[in-house]
Design goal:
This protein has 370 residues and is of the alpha+beta class. The protein folds into two domains: 106 residues, Phosphorylase Kinase, domain 1 (2-Layer Sandwich), CATH 3.30.200.20; 156 residues, Transferase(Phosphotransferase), domain 1. It contains twelve helices and 15 strands. Strands 1-2-3-4-6-5 form a six-stranded antiparallel sheet, with helices on one face. A three-stranded antiparallel sheet has the order 7-8-9. A two-stranded antiparallel sheet has the order 10-11.
């Protein structure tokens, strides 16, 4: 977090906004807003603060709007709409005061590291990247049901904390303050923004046209390369989902627009059930049919041509791990499963998902999407 030296003038140092919000630290707008919009904010007189709600004893974010100016109707509408959305992964709007002398907006203080810095410090595993974006897509699906799209989802709009998980800031508000409007359907715009974030988490490159701290994604003949072409080890199924989502298309039906809810379902289909022995062969017996993959059409489009065992275990995305006779794979994050009985046949064991013996499926996600 970048902190700007707090203004110690009497008007800010001694006054409590609304009689309860004490301004503590002025935050660099660029720490919360990707691109050039942050400079526009500060030029127009808007500032961002970390403050303390002295009534409830908690940290909050204060959007301090320019004094003496009427608040734009788009900003008022965005705040009212965002305040009606309730989801723990979306930063909550707590309070507002649009009076002419000192208008302000009070929002939840989002802890953790925004995804832009997270990617620059080191890429997560493909499994964790899929889990994070699935969580974000689920949250935006809730917002869309309430009629409130984000409209300006960028890497700095998402924060990750190992203890509390994912938090999305600026729902509708960032776009209203920046005066940005999407050229396409808001639902599709949010879905493509989620796909760009997933691409960045998988590769470390930014595939969009917006300015970020991430390097631009490699292109070939004017088209963005797929994640699998940029970074080795990206699972083929996840590669297909990301590439189709960048185009706003459903993986199983390119003619159908992709929504955040459908993207979340597709990403959940990549996950495996938690540590249980299931029979083989067949997709219905692998546990994948119950994770949402069958409903997305990926079971017919991707799995038909890609063997599950082609995904490399080194990337933390091994869909099937076979245990040797009487042996256990090291799994410090879960209880070890029982050893599988030794095969009576002397033939070489099958190496793919349709092996004859039981299969041990596991998930590497930190927590389930709500």
């Amino acid at each position: 977090m970048t902190v700007v030296e707090a203004d110690r003038s009497p008007s800010l140092a001694e006054t409590r906004l609304g009689g309860r919000f004490r301004l503590d630290e002025r935050i660099n707008v660029g720490d919360r807003i990707s691109g050039t919009c942050g400079a526009t904010w500060e030029t127009s007189g808007l500032s961002l603060w970390k403050a303390t709600d002295e009534l409830l004893g908690r940290a909050v974010t204060i959007y301090l709007l320019p004094a003496g100016r009427p608040v734009a109707p788009d900003v008022v509408a965005a705040v009212l709409a965002a305040a009606k959305v309730s989801d723990p992964r979306l930063a909550t709007i707590y309070d507002t005061d649009f009076s002419a002398d000192r208008p302000y907006i009070v929002s939840e203080w989002a802890t953790g590291t925004h995804l832009e810095d997270l990617v620059l410090s080191g890429l997560p595993t493909p499994a964790l990247a899929a889990a994070m974006v699935a969580d974000a897509a689920d949250a935006l699906a809730v917002a869309h049901q309430a009629g409130r799209p984000h409209l300006r989802l960028m890497p700095r709009s998402l924060r990750w904390d190992n203890s509390t998980g994912l938090k999305i800031t600026g729902l509708g508000l960032d776009a209203a303050l920046c005066g940005s409007r999407p050229d396409e359907d808001p639902v599709i715009a949010d879905t493509r923004a989620l796909a760009r974030i997933l691409y960045a988490l998988l590769t470390g490159f930014w595939p969009g046209e917006e300015a970020t701290s991430l390097p631009p994604a490699p292109r070939y003949k004017g088209r963005v390369c797929t994640p699998r072409q940029v970074r080795a080890g990206v699972p083929a199924i996840l590669d297909a989902i990301t590439y189709q989502a960048l185009r706003g298309q459903a993986p199983d039906a390119p003619a159908r627009p992709l929504t955040p809810a459908a993207l979340a379902m597709a990403l959940r289909g990549v996950r495996r059930p938690s540590l249980r022995l299931v029979g083989a062969p067949g997709l219905a017996n692998t546990g994948l049919a119950n994770t949402g993959l069958a409903n997305t059409g990926l079971a017919n489009t991707e799995l038909a041509g890609i063997r599950l065992a082609d995904h490399e275990a080194a990337d933390g995305f091994d869909p099937v791990r076979r245990l040797g006779p009487g042996s256990h794979a090291a799994r410090p994050w879960a209880e070890r499963g029982p050893a599988l009985p030794r095969e009576r046949s002397s033939r070489r064991r099958a190496r793919h998902a349709r092996a004859r013996g039981g299969l041990l499926h596991h998930t590497t996600l930190l927590r389930s999407a709500v």
